[in-house]
């Protein structure tokens, strides 16, 4: 059984907010090796919410692996501390991920506000 930790996969779009699911073993292995998914134990798949431990990218890698193991995830070989933190965040903070919408502030790119651009004093070519 696996859980998506990065990106989205499948025709039914499973992502880090999706519940754990099963695939054929060779597909699960491929996704885990690529860092897209992590193995989840059957017990962790049905477990309720747990308290959120303190962790960040400065946390020891072995401690991060222990935290992943405690929630039923396995750190893939070569997984960076940032990827482990992302996996923990996806488990403990599923609604805090970036939705890809960017910020709510409007940017001025392509907008014409009717104002003349400033004169920057470019009198000649700089060589």
Account of the 3D structure:
The protein has 127 residues and is an alpha+beta fold. It has one domain (2-92). It has helices at 25-33, 42-46, 61-70, 81-92; strands at 2-4, 8-9, 14-15, 37-39. The strands form two sheets. Strands 1-4 form a two-stranded antiparallel sheet. A two-stranded antiparallel sheet has the order 2-3. The longest helix is centred in the last third of the chain and has 12 residues, at 81-92. The protein starts with a strand and ends in a 35-residue tail after the last helix.
Cα-atom radius of gyration? 22 Å
The fraction of residues assigned to DSSP E strands is 5-15%
Uncertain runs: 98-107
Provide the helix percentage.
25-40%
Largest sheet: 2 strands, antiparallel
- The assigned structural class equals alpha+beta
Number of domains: 1
What global shape is seen? elongated
Mean pLDDT: 75
The separation of the N and C termini measures 63 Å
Total strand segments: 4
Provide a count of the helices: 4
Order of helices and strands: EEEHEHHH
Placed side by side, the strands forming the largest sheet appear as 1-4
């Amino acid at each position: 059984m696996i859980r998506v930790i990065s990106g989205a996969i499948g025709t039914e779009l499973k992502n880090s907010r999706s519940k754990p699911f099963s695939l054929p073993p060779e597909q699960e292995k491929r996704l885990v090796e690529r860092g897209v998914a992590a193995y989840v134990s059957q017990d962790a798949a049905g477990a309720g919410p747990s308290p959120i431990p303190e962790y960040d990218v400065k946390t020891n890698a072995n401690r991060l692996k222990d935290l992943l193991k405690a929630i039923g995830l396995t750190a893939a070989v070569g997984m960076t501390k940032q990827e482990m933190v992302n996996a923990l965040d996806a488990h403990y903070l599923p609604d805090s991920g970036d939705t890809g919408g960017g910020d709510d502030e409007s940017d001025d790119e392509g907008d014409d506000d009717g104002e003349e651009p400033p004169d920057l004093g470019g009198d000649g070519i700089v060589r």
